[in-house]
Amino acid sequence: MSPSRVLVLNSGSSSVKYQLLDMRDGSRLAMGLVERIGERSSRLRHTGPAAGPREQHGPIAGHEAALKAMAEELTADGLGLDSPELAAIGHRVVHGGMSFTEPTVIDDAVLAEIERLIPLAPLHNPANLTGIRTARALRPDLPQVAVFDTAFHTTMPESAARYAIDPAVADRYRIRRYGFHGTSHAYVSRAAARLLGRTPEEVNVIVLHLGNGASASAVRGGRCVDTSMGLTPLEGLVMGTRSGDLDPAVIFHLARVGGMSMDEIDTLLNKRSGLFGLCGDNDMREIRRRIDEGDEAARLAFDIYVHRLKKYIGAYCAVLGRVDAVAFTAGVGENAAPVREAAVAGLEGLGLAVDPELNAVRADEPRLISPAGARVAVAVVPTDEELEIATQTYALVGTGRK
Q: What is this structure's pTM?
């Protein structure tokens, strides 16, 4: 029998998330998180086939130690990295630029190119590289695959991907709209098509990935034709701590008039803006609680968030021409019924509406929340980026491994 398991690794600057999946049925055999790597208060939380999670507390010096600790937990469950059933390791890599348009088997040349792209993702690609190098050292014989957040969006036409600046300058510094959350947008757009009983090639879908980071995409026949995030994840929707769309001259104004440095402006727009900057909270549950208590700052933050979201829905209706479904996903999209209701309110002329009773239901499965017979389906589709990474990894190398 061919090996059927894929280990998915998502290496951050101080954390490693992992899942081990069996690709015969997509089931999760184990999952875990190592966090606060490099600190005395490091923690590993592991859930395997046995009942209940296990935790380790204590210093974990670096990613090598983190992955070794993960491997020990998997071995304790009989799922070790030396298992002949392990087909490959799939790595989430945030930025692939225009070099990587699909999942790619990792070799030294691929590593060098990911490293060359660090200026486009200075917070993410270095951590992704560390995880890849550590995993390759642990299992140098095993196929390892990079799955890029940006890859799904490389199908955008130049009219959507290009900024209206001097092309020579843009090309020299690789400035264009790349988009992010690509694995989520790919998974959800296909799942929305299945929910409608159709193939991805038959449907046009607007995907709204609403978590602490948030992005929208317009997907025509299974291919992304526009997305809200750009050169970096800062552009687009209002997010938990990021501003989203902003007049670029605000940056000049803050530098010239406010005397702020580039680093200070970067911190302001990425970490002290969005919902947090507007009202001091980036948890939508807390914001809704404050609104119910009459908090005006929370109400304004919610209204600004929804206003931006509604603008993108309308814009992508125009881009697609025909919309078959709008799919809400990620933490806020899957759980915040008031956000879904407010985002669609007033868009009846575009064929959009939600049924209040269906919208109030909480479930782990994809579901429609639009009224029966609605011209455009409105859906809640739980995302599964790890399964998407595993699926793409296994499709590339799964049965070819000897």
A: 0.92
